[in-house]
Structures are given as structure tokens and as C-alpha cells.
């Protein structure tokens, strides 16, 4: 089954609702970062929530970067998203696994920590990017994105994201939903939504039962109330290249690059986001120095 995201409006415009399956995407991230269960769940939830956020608030070529630092063992999590359904992301420590929490779930809050902030930098393609920052609520990621949307974007929302990791560290399922409350929503409709969300199984349980993103939304709302608008494939995709790394090497001083030639006889650049490695020979480095002149 392919990963995809669906967009919908509910109850004639009272809510906007999105749901996504990210199983393959999070599996790709797990493989690339060789991550362990708590790190996989923390990064997978962040990738999923960033996809949902990006597809709900961005248009065209706009981009955003989410940085979460809760002071926990995973260290900082960084995810880049856009309106076209691709994300890339990494965390400082991919090798975190913790005992299950009191609910018998992966302890994402314990792994991420909640003594810190979540910052979202939006690049709208015109001048200076804008950063909105909020304190973390629980480090469980879904709550933190919900709080960010309410505080920074002034959009009352509900975000649910979930990752199931198999005992052998591979990813079983991953996905999530995002619901935005629009100004026309009545108090009764909001109360009903709240009650349904409280009774909702985990997204990962619904996905393991074979439910599709459309079915996740019709589990939350009555099927007659949901009008599906759009469906979009989603994937983990990095845009790094040797040329990009050459450009960042070119910002170093001539002396520093000369040292790489004399001492290391070359250089290796590793992309944090995807783990790809790029080799620079002595000749490549010399060309960068020559280019600087
Ligand atoms: Zn990369």
C-alpha cells in the first residue's frame, strides 16, 4: 500500500480535516538513520505531523522547518516539509530505546523531553523567513503541534500522530490526522468532535486494522459529513547533492580547505537528513580553492 494524504472539509465548512499514512516514509527514515524504537517513534511522529502541518498551511513552493528540542535523550529533532508531500528529517541521537510508558506505549515524551521549545520557520519565498516558537507541552509531538497551531497560527486544532515499531526495530505502521476548527463551527459540533476524539483508538491501531486515511477521518466524523477534496502521495525525500556540499565547503577559508588537502588528502561530507555520503578528492578541494579566487 502506498503512503498518501487526504484532505477534506467536514460539516459544510465547520472543520478542515487531513489524514495520512506514512508507513513507508517512516520505514525509509528508520533505515537511513538506523534508529531504535523511541527515536524512530519520535522522528516518525515529527515527520508525519510536519507533513500534515505543511499540507494544511503552505502553498506552492513555500517550505517550513520544524525544530524540536525538549532536553531529552533524542536531542534536537529537525524536519523539513513543503506543500508537495515530501519531508526529510533527522534527530541528534537515533539510538534511543526506553521502557514502555504506563500506557504500554513507546515513551516518546520521555525520549524527546518537554523542557524546551518547538520552533517552526516558514520560508514563503519572499525575503526573510518567519519563525514562530512555542514551549513544548509533553514532547509526545501530537500535543506539541496542536499547541503550536493554537498559539502561533491561531488555528484551534487537533493533531494525532502514531508510529508502531516492530520488535526487530522495523516500522509496522505510521500515520496521523490533523483537524482544524474553522470559524463556522458550532459549540455542539466542537463538543461532539471532542467526544469522538476521546473515544478514538490510536491511529497506529486503526492502520494495523487495515484502515485507510479516508477511513480514519470517517471514524472521527460521520461518513455523510466528510467531503474529500484531494489526495496526494507522500514520501521521504532529500534534496542534497555533491554540488550543495561543495557550496558549503566553499564558505570555509582557503587555509581550512588546504588543511583538508594536506592532512586528510580529501574530505567526506555526510548529509544529516538522509545519511548520504559525498567524497571530495584532493582535486575536488583544489578546484573549490581555485573557484574562491
Ligand atoms: Zn540528504
From TrEMBL:
It is found in: Cytoplasm. The keyword Disulfide bond applies. Pfam families: HSP33. Disulfide bonds join 238-240, 271-274. GO terms for biological process: protein refolding. The keyword Disulfide bond applies. Keywords: Chaperone, Cytoplasm, Disulfide bond, Redox-active center, Zinc. Signal peptide: none annotated. CDD domains: Hsp33. One of its GO terms (molecular function) is protein folding chaperone. SUPFAM superfamilies: Hsp33 domain (SSF64397), HSP33 redox switch-like (SSF118352). GO terms for cellular component: cytoplasm. It comes from the Bacteria. Its main location: cytoplasm. Under oxidizing conditions two disulfide bonds are formed involving the reactive cysteines. Under reducing conditions zinc is bound to the reactive cysteines and the protein is inactive. Redox regulated molecular chaperone. Protects both thermally unfolding and oxidatively damaged proteins from irreversible aggregation. Plays an important role in the bacterial defense system toward oxidative stress. PANTHER family: 33 KDA CHAPERONIN (PTHR30111). Belongs to the HSP33 family. NCBIfam families: PRK00114.1. This is 33 kDa chaperonin. The lineage of its organism: Bacteria, Bacillati, Bacillota, Bacilli, Lactobacillales.
